[in-house]
Backbone:
């Protein structure tokens, strides 16, 4: 275990090293800046006034602390005034996402959602997920050896799986991708009024489509997740109609985007490290551990934000009510205090402590499903394409930041 610089960081309002999401170089490759922030003697702030946590111990303590909420309604600006809620999905409006709910609402909603995402329930999907991966790869290579891994595999796979879980007919599945992409951008801290306006039709698209499907399932229940959620509502398990819509939207935002970025970021990392890719081909049983290392190395979610609801102390860092911290999940995943040679990809690494799915009560609901989809994808790519390589050295990233993912990944087989 490697141990670097000394004790706890101290809050310094004048610290010059910024965490600026408008910096395109930072968006393209945030890991160098994370290292600078992590090894600084002082704690730095974003231009919005959020303290930035980058050390593993600090991030872990923050995401586990019940005094720190993920709901933005608790946030205060630099003058101590409540921040304006910018999301059409959350807070005290029509929708309350599990992602941002506080207890007791979170406890109730999570209990309902967990029924569909237990490891045992997800494992039953493995055969079907493997079939979908092969079907998509067959279609991608039907007209030639080159394809875009994002458009042909990483993006459609989780949408198909979620739609099948919910019981959405095949012919309707394509319409959800643009809605999900629009809404996933809304969880970033730099949302503009224009982005907000574009998000409203996406919300209404989900509401109108699933409003009709919910009525169909009420009249004719089936063996799918949507029917199960409706049954819970009907049995008085405290699931309000608007919460049902919010749950469905979250499944698409979190389930779709997280898995898409895991597959894209993970494949890029493998193709840039031929030795590690060769090891996976030689040892296919390594895929479970390999997927965890790929999650650690370049996670699909870079950070999460927490706000103190009462006076709190995070590893010696005092927080007043209304003060917010950026919990740098990706930065913590490369903390040399926890991971030896953290900037190196090592598929056989012991990675039990990575924070790619956050922690505490907001640990990612779909973590088991994302893992399974990643495992089956990486296994199939290694098995089917012994000469798989990048078609270009230049890759671009979407304008999202919290959910970090590629715009495209052209590959040659």
Residues:
């Amino acid at each position: 275990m490697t141990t670097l610089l000394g004790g706890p960081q101290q809050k310094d309002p004048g610290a010059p090293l910024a965490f600026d999401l408008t910096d395109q170089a930072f968006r393209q490759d945030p890991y160098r800046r994370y290292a600078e922030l992590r090894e600084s003697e002082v704690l730095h702030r974003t231009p919005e006034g959020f303290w930035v946590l980058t050390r593993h111990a600090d991030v872990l303590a923050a995401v586990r602390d019940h005094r720190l909420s993920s709901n933005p309604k608790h946030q205060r600006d630099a003058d101590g005034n409540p921040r304006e809620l910018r999301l059409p999905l959350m807070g005290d409006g029509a929708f309350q996402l599990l992602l941002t709910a506080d207890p007791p609402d979170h406890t109730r909603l999570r209990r309902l959602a967990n029924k569909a995402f237990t490891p045992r329930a997800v494992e039953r999907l493995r055969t079907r997920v493997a079939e979908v991966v092969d079907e998509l790869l067959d279609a991608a290579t039907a007209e030639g050896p080159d394809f875009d891994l994002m458009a042909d595999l990483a993006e459609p796979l989780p949408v198909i799986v979620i739609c099948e879980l919910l019981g959405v007919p095949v012919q309707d599945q394509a319409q959800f991708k643009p809605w999900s992409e629009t809404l996933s951008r809304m969880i970033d801290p730099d949302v503009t009024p224009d982005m907000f306006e574009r998000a409203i039709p996406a919300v209404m698209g989900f509401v109108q489509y699933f409003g009709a499907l919910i009525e169909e399932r009420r009249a004719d229940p089936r063996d799918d997740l949507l029917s199960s959620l409706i049954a819970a509502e009907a049995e008085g398990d405290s699931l309000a109609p608007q919460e049902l819509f919010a749950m469905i939207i979250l499944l698409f935002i979190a389930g779709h985007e997280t898995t898409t970025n895991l597959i894209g970021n993970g494949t890029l990392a493998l193709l840039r490290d031929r030795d590690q890719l060769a090891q996976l081909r030689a040892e296919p049983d390594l895929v479970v551990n390999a997927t965890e290392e790929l999650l650690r190395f370049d996670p699909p979610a870079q950070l999460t934000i927490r706000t103190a609801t009462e006076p709190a102390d995070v590893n010696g860092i005092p927080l007043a009510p209304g003060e917010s911290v950026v919990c740098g999940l990706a930065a913590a995943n490369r903390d040399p205090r926890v991971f030896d040679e953290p900037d190196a990809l090592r598929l056989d690494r012991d990675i039990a402590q990575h924070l790619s799915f956050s922690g505490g009560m907001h640990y990612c609901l779909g973590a088991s499903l994302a893992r399974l989809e990643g495992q089956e994808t990486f296994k199939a790519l290694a098995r089917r394409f012994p000469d798989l390589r990048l078609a270009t050295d230049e890759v671009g990233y979407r304008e999202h930041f919290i959910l970090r993912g590629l715009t495209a990944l052209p590959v040659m087989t």
Q: What stands out?
A: The two ends are 39 Å apart (CA to CA). DSSP finds 16 helices and eleven strands in the chain. The longest strand covers residues 304-308. Residues 87 and 186 are 6 Å apart (CA to CA).
